[in-house]
Design brief:
Strand content: 25-35%
Radius of gyration: 12 Å
Shape: globular
Order of helices and strands: EHHEEH
Number of strands: 3
Number of helices: 3
Helix content: 40-55%
Distance between the termini: 18 Å
Length: about 70
């Protein structure tokens, strides 16, 4: 699979990576944890701690190489 991105974009959200690769968020998060890809950004939202995964373009290329599109 091939993914085309803008060279100016340095960081991708988990939602963007999911949309570009066709990998569901659950599988993407599990892959990020197990292969130490991306980094977890913590933001306080309405008194709660919320975590979002952020990925570099290098992380994105590794995700594409390791995980195929989700079929479900």
């Amino acid at each position: 699979m091939s993914v085309t991105i803008r060279s100016s974009q340095k960081v991708f959200t988990e939602t963007e990576v999911s949309g570009l690769t066709g990998i569901c968020l659950d599988h993407l998060r599990n892959l990020a944890r197990s292969k130490h890809l991306g980094f977890l950004s913590r933001a306080a939202a309405a008194g709660e701690q919320a975590g979002k995964w952020l990925f570099t373009s290098s992380d994105l290329m590794v995700v594409v190489a390791l995980q195929s599109r989700c079929e479900h």
